[in-house]
Amino acid sequence: MSDLFLLATALAAVLSIAALKAGRPAALAAQLAMFFYLAQQGRQHPVSMPYIGEVAVSLDFYKMPFVATSVVLGLLVTLYAPRYLEHLQAARWYYGVHALYVLSFVWIILFENLVFVFLALELSIITSFLLIWYFGYGDRRRVGLLYFIWAQVGSILFLVGIALSGHFVAEGFKTFGLASLLVLVGLLVKMGTAGAHFWLPYAHAEAPTPLSALLSPVHVGLMAYWIWRLREGAQWPLEVLYAYGLATAIYGSFLVFREVDIKRALADSTIANMGLLVAAAAVKHPLGYFALALLFVGHAFAKAAGFMLSGIYIVGLHTRRFDELRWDLRILAVAVMAFVALSGVFGINLLGKIGVALGAPHSLSVVVLLIAALFTTALYNFYILNRIYRGGAGEVTVDGEMYISTLASAVLPYILMPVVLLWFL
């Protein structure tokens, strides 16, 4: 392992553990230390281990958007959290668990050995489970157990598939048959796509809102990177996977229209957006990666802004119900920016949707699915906006740090458009 990786790991881990007692300052320092990971380039010197082979880390062009988004959004959520956690009467150790949760995202992407990817997934499950169990809403312990069980099912299927394949390193990964199927199903269960989504609306809606802002777009979304990365060696039927992703997007979008609670609506919408990510990961054209990265980044910031907005309502109005929401100009501005970006009408999600469309197989039925998926994933956002607007104008008490963090997350999908164009040219 490189000295830089070891330094970043030592700093981030020690500061995250220190944040269990020291709180937000140490958590912020831990996540700032994670930027050291971004300074390393290429494949780092591997360590060979019995049975599982090389244990290496790497950071390349393809991994950079996923790692950078995870760390930046983790920092924004940490800045957002104090007033919300005060409202929850949450203990200071929340920040330490949060920092370890963000660190797990980085490791999920950086590790090349798939057994270590599994271990990073376990860290993400344990940390998020603890935050739901102690600080969630409603029947939080039942929801926490539901989440934990489904998340473990996905991870264990992934691990068993890797073990059956006999290939533990992502580079040159090859498998087929049952092993290939288990790896794919494990990743799809963790994403909460159609048929494996039952846990997702409960966990994402009843989690404490700072956790929802990371769990919904980042944690589940990172699985799409591994579908894209392993797809050739796993020999998955990509056209079928593409159609399944589109069907998931349509199904998840329709679920939004049944909700009367803004957090539940946002949770359901994550199913739709995971469908788009699956479709992007299955695109055979080189634009597939372009679409995947853009949809991941755009969804991460826009969906986080949506959840942060719901947190502002919870703290300011003590409600999550659409018919009890109000808005002033500041709230309305953030809502419009977040949901227009998430819809893909403008912002980097628009570019991602174009990439998904250009990669469509030449099949009339798939094209019909594509048009329906692109339309419904835009429509549900305007439905949510309409429900907020219909609540009427009124005063909403807004904490300054909460608002600035939410605004930054809502604006980034637009600011990043020129950066993205330069990045991919």
What portion of the residues fall into strands of 2 or more residues? under 5%
Can you list the strand order of the major beta sheet? Answer: 1-4
Give the terminus-to-terminus CA distance.
31 Å
Q: Please state the CA-atom Rg, rounded to the nearest Å.
A: 20 Å
| Rounded mean pLDDT score | 94
Overall, the morphology is globular
For the secondary structure, the number of strands is 4
Number of helices: 17
Q: How can the largest sheet be summarized? A: 2 strands, antiparallel
Structural class: mainly alpha
Compressed to H and E, one letter per element, the order equals: HHEEEEHHHHHHHHHHHHHHH
Describe this structure in a few short sentences.
The chain contains 17 helices and 4 strands. By secondary structure, the protein is an all-alpha fold.
